[in-house]
């Protein structure tokens, strides 16, 4: 039996929802302000996972203007064996100001996991993190967090369940409040229903999506409860098993719950799957902080834990503990070797399409601004808004999946105005990025390579580290090592790589480094690598990229 290393999906892959259909496994994860929305990964061995597409990729949602960390939250995959349809429920978080958390939830369906997916069916606006459960009598139920806004009531609210009308939308009957959590960790959210040996089991996330995060469980003989808490009084999976009392706290980073003895932190928000080998696993999110820090550039990643049912009918980790581990036993009689290069990227743009892993913040990808057809063998990106924009930035990005890697590209760009730029960099959101770009020298008579930085919304132009670029063509390389970035370049008239400026401290490009209030997480969306272009002149310039590679060390 093989041992598989966590995370199984590194980089931004939070809130994993796992299902099995036959011998195929699928995981859907949150995407927030990134498009296309809702990543869907596939595996046959639980060890090797490939991004096969997105559920919302035909303009179903408009994410322009989305503030960090709103957008598309906590997708939930399910499969209805009666109709043989895949279902995906999700929340579109539109406003978080005033802790009002205005979110509309929908469901889409498809006959194939690769789509096409149906038009969204409206479910509710009562809260966020919806999950759909298909009962064996043909009825369908939705479970979700009912967001609490009343002063003096336990936040973030109740977990509620209702019968749902998947054909026409909305619910049948009333919402039933079933719990505010099964332990004292508080912040109950992300409810998911399962049925096993005559019981309905309710799996929920708790403790806030920080260092006190965990997976809790309760059970009932009827779908609307009452639900009996797991008798241990503690999460069944967590990175920090120390007892936590946090009732009434709507969410928190809980930095005091950091476990110095664990490589894995923030384990929580779980989803259960029963394998064809009659085994049980929970997929859950996790984080890996920078050494000696509590900042997580890679955001929340996806891991698995092997589970078992104990003699009293409660789900627990296979080793009897509740401490999430960095490795787990793979499927019985399914030999596997976990690839060490599956998350590297090497795209030479020689085909009609580009790598499916490219994502775009806020706006949708369209051939009008990004394509491989206008100059075959290249990815052409037409410049648009400044990267401070949450509307139309021309950015093509991929998730950072290691704390030690190299990203590299070659581009040709002919700027004829100082507000036209193109290049490569690191990106968190519109207020936080690092950008090595070709642009005009301030005298407007030749092209240079220079670094521009956004740090907590401030603009920093590194004026004194520019280098002239003959022929308007250069290769740019960025070496990232545990929060430190070094930028290098190679011109057409040189054979060797040369450094550009000093090392850059980019530890702030992390979930905790982007304007988090004390004790809170600033974002959930993790670090990306990108190529892109800006044109705040006449919207006529474009850059041609020869290749894009990411090599994880």
Automatic annotation (TrEMBL):
Residues 346-551 form the Beta-xylosidase C-terminal Concanavalin A-like domain. Belongs to the glycosyl hydrolase 43 family. Keywords: Glycosidase, Hydrolase. This is Family 43 glycosylhydrolase. Pfam families: GH43_C2, Glyco_hydro_43.
């Amino acid at each position: 039996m093989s041992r598989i290393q966590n995370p199984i999906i590194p980089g931004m892959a939070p809130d994993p929802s796992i299902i099995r259909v036959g011998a195929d496994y699928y995981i859907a994860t949150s995407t927030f302000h990134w498009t296309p929305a809702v990543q869907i990964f596939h595996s046959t061995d639980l060890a090797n996972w490939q991004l096969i597409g997105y559920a919302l990729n035909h303009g179903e949602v408009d994410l322009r203007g989305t503030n960090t960390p709103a957008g598309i939250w906590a997708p939930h995959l399910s499969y209805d064996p009666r109709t043989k349809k895949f279902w995906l429920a999700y929340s579109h978080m539109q406003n978080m100001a005033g802790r009002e958390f205005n979110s509309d939830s929908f469901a889409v369906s498809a006959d194939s996991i690769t789509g096409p997916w149906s038009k969204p069916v409206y479910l509710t606006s009562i809260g966020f993190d919806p999950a759909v459960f298909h009962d064996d009598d043909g009825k369908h139920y939705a479970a979700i967090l009912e967001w609490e806004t009343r002063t003096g009531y336990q936040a973030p609210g109740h977990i509620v369940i209702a019968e749902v009308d998947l054909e026409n939308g909305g619910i049948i009957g009333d919402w039933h409040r079933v719990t505010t959590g099964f332990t004292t960790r508080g912040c109950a959210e992300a409810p998911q229903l399962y049925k096993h040996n005559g019981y309905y089991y309710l799996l929920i996330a708790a403790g806030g999506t920080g260092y006190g995060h965990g997976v809790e469980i309760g059970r009932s003989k009827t779908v609307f409860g009452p639900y009996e808490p797991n008798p241990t009084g503690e999460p069944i999976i967590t990175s920090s098993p120390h007892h936590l009392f946090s009732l009434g706290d709507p969410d928190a980073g809980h930095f005091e719950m950091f476990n110095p003895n664990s490589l894995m932190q923030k384990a929580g928000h779980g989803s259960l799957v029963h394998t064809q080998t009659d085994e049980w696993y929970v997929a859950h999110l996790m984080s890996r902080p920078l050494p000696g820090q509590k900042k997580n550039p890679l955001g929340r990643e996806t891991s698995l834990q092997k589970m078992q049912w104990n003699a009293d009918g409660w789900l627990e980790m296979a080793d009897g503990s509740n401490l999430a581990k960095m490795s787990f036993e793979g499927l019985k009689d399914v030999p596997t070797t976990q690839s060490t290069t599956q998350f590297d990227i090497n795209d030479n743009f020689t085909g009609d399409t580009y790598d499916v892993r490219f994502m775009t913040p806020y706006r949708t990808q369209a051939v009008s601004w990004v394509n491989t057809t206008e100059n075959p063998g290249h990815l052409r990106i037409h410049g648009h808004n400044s990267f401070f924009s949450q509307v139309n930035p021309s950015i093509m990005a991929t998730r950072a999946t290691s704390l030690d890697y190299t990203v590299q590209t070659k581009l040709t760009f002919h700027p004829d105005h100082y507000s036209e730029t193109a290049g490569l960099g690191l990106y968190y959101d519109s207020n936080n990025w690092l950008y090595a770009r070709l642009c005009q020298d301030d005298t407007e008579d030749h092209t240079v390579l220079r670094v521009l930085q956004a740090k907590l919304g401030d603009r920093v132009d590194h004026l004194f580290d520019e280098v002239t670029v003959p022929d308007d063509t250069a290769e740019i390389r960025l070496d990232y090592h545990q929060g430190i970035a070094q930028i290098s370049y190679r011109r057409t008239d040189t054979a060797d790589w040369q450094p550009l400026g000093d090392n850059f401290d980019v530890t702030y490009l992390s979930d905790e480094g982007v304007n988090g209030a004390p004790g809170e997480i600033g974002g959930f969306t993790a670090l990306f690598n990108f190529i892109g272009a800006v044109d705040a002149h006449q919207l006529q310039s474009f850059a041609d990229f020869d290749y894009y590679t990411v090599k994880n060390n």
